[in-house]
Design goal:
This protein has one helix and two strands. 36% of the residues lie in helices and 6% in strands. By secondary structure, it is mainly alpha-helical. It is elongated. Strands 1-2 form a two-stranded antiparallel sheet. The protein has a domain of 37 residues. Keywords: Membrane, Transmembrane, Transmembrane helix.
């Protein structure tokens, strides 16, 4: 086995690629398995907001309805 990446042969490059692939799969698998909470309590529902009468806000204490 060569200790320099520049003079490494084909099998050394293949070993590096395989180890990087295995490490990437291990990290992805661990991150999926480490998730402990479920999404059941965090569902969102759509709320309908109906428009009311238009109001113009001024610096005065009263509001003007148009």
């Amino acid at each position: 086995m060569n200790h320099s990446i520049y003079s490494a042969d084909r099998s050394t490059h293949l070993k590096i690629v395989v180890m990087a692939l295995v490490a990437g799969i291990a990290v992805a698998g661990f991150s999926v398995l480490a998730r402990t909470t479920s999404d059941e309590g965090y569902t969102q529902t759509a709320r309908v907001i109906k428009a009311g009468k238009p109001v113009a806000i001024t610096s005065a204490t009263t509001s003007t309805v148009r």
